[in-house]
Amino acid sequence: MKHLIATFLALVCLNSCIPAQSSFGDQLADSALTLTEESVVYDPSYFRIAYPNGDVPVGKGVCTDVVIRAYRKMGVDLQKEVHEDMVANFHVYPKKWGLSKTDTNIDHRRVPNLMTFFERKGRVKMISENGADYLPGDIVCWSLGGAITHIGLVVDLRSADDERFLVVHNIGGGQVIADCLFDYKIIGHYSYDKD
User: Fold this and answer.
1) Residue 13 is assigned to a structural domain of this protein
2) CB 142 within 8 A of CB 184
3) Which of 24, 53, 58, 61 lies in disulfide reach of 193, CB 3.0 to 4.6 Å?
4) Can you give the residue range of the structural domain that contains 175?
């Protein structure tokens, strides 16, 4: 009996000493944080890029490229995923650009297309004014006014008042960490884990 109890206690200790693997969202948030170490100039130019796994030139990018690059570090190619869904379901994607077919160079780099993709393939989460509802790895989309949209990733760093997590985004100053969750009107809140 003593041997059985000792074995049980050893197993409990072993299990509590092994660090839990972090969730996909935590890992995605970490990937986004590493992007802030890279110097990137905001450049909304249209680029011809490879397919699949294409990327705009190093040192350039916009808000969507933050999300694309963070997912790429996780082994998820949003260029390919969005393209394949658009080919199969072109009619459900926005028609704001007058296109009659897909374009692997730009489709995944447009916020409204990413919103449609995440609504279809990810998990739509509640939009609220409560910072606790936005977790590391969550994708947040905003309206900046007019037809201008923006996107960023929630990361595991807290605001100075400890009320919310911070965001990695690129709104013109490169890939940066900012306390901007409620600075703009939130129009989308998602999580997406391909597996």
Assistant:
1) no
2) yes
3) 24
4) 24-191
